UniProtKB/TrEMBL annotation:
Keywords: Electron transport, Iron, Iron-sulfur, Metal-binding, Transport
Superkingdom of this protein's organism: Archaea
Name by which UniProt lists this protein: Ferredoxin
Entries under PANTHER family matching the protein: FERREDOXIN
Classification of source organism: Archaea, Methanobacteriati, Methanobacteriota, Stenosarchaea group, Halobacteria
Keyword Iron-sulfur among record annotations: yes
A GO molecular function held by the record: metal ion binding
Family annotation (InterPro entries): Fe-S_cluster_ET
């Protein structure tokens, strides 16, 4: 499973941080940070989600008020917008 995070869209509510430790607060920028995320495009970060964190990653995506987080299965099919 893969998670994609659009940092530009993020408004810094940090609800994702409360749901999954794969996200951290960047208080200076007022945005969340995808821990160990690789920048795929400017301000778009991706990371492979460990199997034991898949449920938490899905919750993090679901609680994002601006849909800045998307989760994909291993075939590239979108699971959570």
């Amino acid at each position: 499973m893969k998670i994609e995070y659009d940092r530009d869209t993020c408004i810094g509510m940090f609800q994702c941080v409360a749901e999954w430790d794969g996200f951290e607060k960047d208080e200076t920028a007022g945005k969340a940070v995808l821990v160990d995320g690789e920048e795929e495009q400017p301000d778009t970060f991706v990371q492979t989600v460990p199997a034991d964190a898949e449920l938490d990653a899905k919750f993090a995506a679901r609680v994002c008020p601006v849909d800045a987080i998307t989760v994909y299965d291993d075939d590239g099919e979108q699971l959570v917008p």
